[in-house]
Design brief:
alpha+beta; Alpha-D-Glucose-1,6-Bisphosphate, Chain A, domain 4; globular; PI_transfer; 23% helix; 8-stranded mixed β-sheet
């Protein structure tokens, strides 16, 4: 029961959040959303989105990124297991690969991705939806879970140590791989992406809990219809062409759109654009805005490749 509620709440949150964060020329355009059949993972849902975020980039990135810029998100949802990939044709050698597993616990499974990474290759971060700080621009008093109480479920307020006292509780485990192999920008981009991923996870799970009274009575069919209607409204809001979205009932055959078996390959050209090249006599900057400090494991190939691998544990208490 908890697992189904979490899934409905997650779908509702993603649709509503995307709509709220979108404006003309900026936001999330849904290109495809269809059932998908995988020979290994079984029935699931495939989505492809274009995320337009030029104005949300830091100033140093906007200086080299064209205004017509988007990131492609492809997701294969075989709940309680999902795969999400992000690529950008403008930035070769860039990719984000996220594997997610959901379990009915408070983040105590240290071996959920056992066998995929060695301990020294992974940093574990716990995301507390009630007490971790979020960027000030995202803060809303109504979504502050320390002071929020659900009218329909009576869940809340979340006090210190809530993960050990709330029951039932659901945990979202994420294994995140970030790669950007362009000398001179690699460290800045990877650190920036790590921080963005963490902020998005934190904000999304806060909202899923704070909006519980809006989705708790929904069925899966109802939330899918909400998802379809909201996606069309969001596409119009950002000024895209009339959307060709289909949330069909017939699963795509596995041969029609192959799911990923590992981290995504680098899209398009393997060479960086000329204007991203850094002059040899230019000193390399070591600082990055809004950085999330990560340990240097000393693994460098050809002097510039340093994949950053870690997992996010994001616990969120769900109503009965």
């Amino acid at each position: 029961m908890v697992s189904l509620q979490y899934r409905i709440g997650q779908l509702y949150m993603i649709s509503k959040h995307s709509h709220e964060q979108s404006d003309r020329g900026e936001g999330v355009e849904v290109v495809q959303n269809e059932p998908y059949e995988d020979p290994i993972h079984g029935s699931g849902q495939f989505t492809e989105k274009r995320i337009y975020l030029n104005n949300k980039l830091p100033s140093w990135a906007r200086a080299v990124v064209p205004k017509i810029f988007y990131v492609t998100e492809k997701a294969w949802n075989y709940y309680p297991y999902t795969i999400t990939e992000y690529t950008c044709s403008f930035l070769p050698k860039f990719s984000i690969h996220i594997e997610t597993k959901y379990e009915d616990n408070n983040g105590t499974n240290d071996n959920i991705f056992d066998g995929e990474l060695k301990d020294e290759d992974m940093e574990v971060c716990f995301v507390d939806i009630a007490y971790d700080e979020i960027p000030e621009r995202y803060y809303k008093e109504a979504e502050d879970l320390r002071y929020f109480k659900s009218e329909k479920t009576s869940r809340g307020f979340l006090q210190e140590g809530w993960r050990d006292t709330q029951n039932p509780v659901m945990c979202s485990y994420k294994l995140v791989t970030v790669k950007f192999e362009v000398w001179g920008l690699q460290t800045r981009v990877e650190q920036f992406v790590h921080k963005v991923v963490r902020d998005v996870l934190l904000l999304g799970h806060r909202q899923a809990f704070a909006w519980v009274d809006e989705w708790i009575d929904m069925t899966m069919d109802e939330v899918r219809e909400y998802e379809r209607a909201t996606q069309e409204a969001t596409n119009k809001k950002i000024g895209s062409l009339p959307p060709a979205i289909s949330i069909s009932e017939t699963p795509l055959p596995s041969c029609a759109r192959s799911g990923p078996s590992s981290a995504p390959s680098t899209p398009l050209s393997t060479e960086a654009p000329d204007f991203l090249a850094v002059p040899k006599d230019r000193p390399r900057k070591k600082s990055a805005p809004e950085t999330l400090t990560l340990p240097d494991h000393g693994r460098r190939d050809s002097g510039y490749r340093l994949p950053s691998l870690f997992s996010w544990h994001s616990s969120s208490s769900q109503p009965e």
